[in-house]
Each structure stands twice: as C-alpha cells, then as structure tokens.
C-alpha cells in the first residue's frame, strides 16, 4: 500500500512539537493510529521526527471500498525521497517504583479512607444505626411534650369555640328579636296606613255624597216647598169656598169675600159666586166704589154675623181636606208652618168678630 506523504509529513511535524516529544512512544503511536494512519505511515512519521518506532502491530487490512487518494504533484515539486528502513531498537522498559512511590500512595489512600470513614460515621451511620435507649427516652419526652401542648391547644380551641358559639347564639337571638319587633312595627305601620287610607277614602266618599246630595236636597226642598205652597193655596181656596158656602147670599157674603181678597183699586170686580143680587143689598153696592168692601163690613156696627144667618143645613169640611191638612202639618217646614199659622189667624180674623 502506498504511503500518503501529506499525512506522514503532518504527523512528523506534530511529533516534533516540544509538548508532544516528551510523551511516551506508545501514546504517540496510538494517537497517530487514531488518525487513520497505517503502521507503515506511523513508522515513517516516527523516523522523520527522529523517534524510535514501536513494535510492529498487526492490524486488519483496510477495506477495498475506501480507495487511497494520492496527493497531487505540483509543477516544480519533486516527490519526497523515502529513507531506507533502519534498525528498530527494542521498546523502553517501564520505570521501576521505589519506596517513596509506595509511601505516597499509602498516605493518599489512608487520608482518603479516613475521610470516608469520618463522613460515614458522622452522617451515614446516624441514619442507619438503631437509636439508643437514651435517644429513645429523649424522643419519648419530646413527643409527650408535643402531645401535651397539642391537647392544651385543643382544649383552649374548644373553649374558644364554645364561647364563640354562645356569643353567636346570643347575637342570633337578639337579631331575631329585633327582626320580629321590626316586622311588628312594619305591620302596625301598614295597618295604620291602610286604616288612614280607608278613612280618607270614606271621607272622600262622604264628601262626594254630600256634593251629590246637596243639589238633590235643595231641589227636593224646593219641590217640597212648592208643593206645600200649592197645598196652602188649595187649603185657602177650600176655606174660602167653605166660608162662601156657609154665608147667606146677601151683601154680607160679598163683604166677607172682599175682606179675604181685598181689591187693589176701586174698580176691582168681585167674584161672581160671592157677589149678591143688587136688589137685596143696594147700600153695599153704593159704597163699593169709594172704599174696600171689607172696610164697610168691619166699620158697619149693624153688621150681622155670616154664621148667624138662618141656613137650612150646616156646611162642614170634607174628609179629604182634613186628611190633607193633617199630613201637611206633620211634614211642613217652619216657614210653611208660619204660613199656615198666618192663614189660621186670617181665618180666625175673618170668622171671629
């Protein structure tokens, strides 16, 4: 196999380095073989570097699939001349160890052993060694103290919990009582408000009823007053008719009629029913133009009572007029009663003298 000159040259230069020259030959050979140099190339590199080649070792042949590339030859460059193979000296013997080496080794081993023993005794042995009775007793006392502290803390916590529970129960009771009072006050306020609303609504209804009833009452009172006035007028007409019927058909009847209904002027015409015949009382007709008839009747000292005339039958008030008078007297207002009283006085004045 051809030697690769470039690799051999670089290997020789590497071996000539001062830091590499002091190394053993075995290491140099192993390093060069690690760089894929063959045994021949290693020996050539050692020869060029001035070192003795080591023993020839047998290596497996390189596979045929990896061809060896020859370095190119440039113009003016001559191929290197290979020196002839020289005699290879035997390998160097290993240095012998004296008592100092063994002493140093024993000292180092003793120090390392003592350090390992100290570390194991201080850190490892307490972890794996069984506890002593004193240690057990100390641990027991410590555990008992911890238990006592824990029990005391639990008792204190239970007392505090009971106190908090009692305070919370009391606060809850006060809160419930306050809520009940507040609810009762709210209910009372609602009831009072409801009653006030009811009273206000009732007052509004009463006021509205009064507003509605006052016009009706006034209208009813007006109608009642008109009715009573008409009844009074009817009563007066009935009384007038009754008095006229009870009087004789003489001049006295005409005087009574004129007294009850005085004429406003001298030319007032008396009612036909109450006017007597002119032949029976010519003196009454003669004085009718100068003064009212009721004055002649009252001023005449020789007047005769209309009720003393000799009538065949005595006239009486009809029953329906008496019932109407009684019903009117029971439901008549003070003003109407005054009117009735005035009419009664008028009747007494007309009938009495």
From TrEMBL:
Pfam families, alphabetized: Pex14_N (PF04695)
UniProt GO molecular function: signaling receptor binding
Comp. bias regions, Low complexity: 263-290
Compositional bias per record (Polar residues), positions renumbered to this chain: 297-315, 327-347
Peroxisome membrane anchor protein Pex14p N-terminal domain location: 4-46
Basic and acidic residues: bias regions: 194-209
Region annotated Disordered, chain positions: 192-222, 263-353
Domain of life per record: Eukaryota
Keywords annotated in UniProt: Membrane, Peroxisome, Protein transport, Translocation, Transport
Subcellular location: Peroxisome membrane
Gene Ontology BP, a term: protein import into peroxisome matrix, docking
Keyword Transmembrane helix part of the UniProt annotation: no
Any one GO cellular component localisation term in the record: peroxisomal importomer complex
The protein's role, per its UniProt record: Component of the PEX13-PEX14 docking complex, a translocon channel that specifically mediates the import of peroxisomal cargo proteins bound to PEX5 receptor. The PEX13-PEX14 docking complex forms a large import pore which can be opened to a diameter of about 9 nm. Mechanistically, PEX5 receptor along with cargo proteins associates with the PEX14 subunit of the PEX13-PEX14 docking complex in the cytosol, leading to the insertion of the receptor into the organelle membrane with the concomitant translocation of the cargo into the peroxisome matrix.
Membership in a protein family: Belongs to the peroxin-14 family.
Name of protein: Peroxisomal membrane protein PEX14
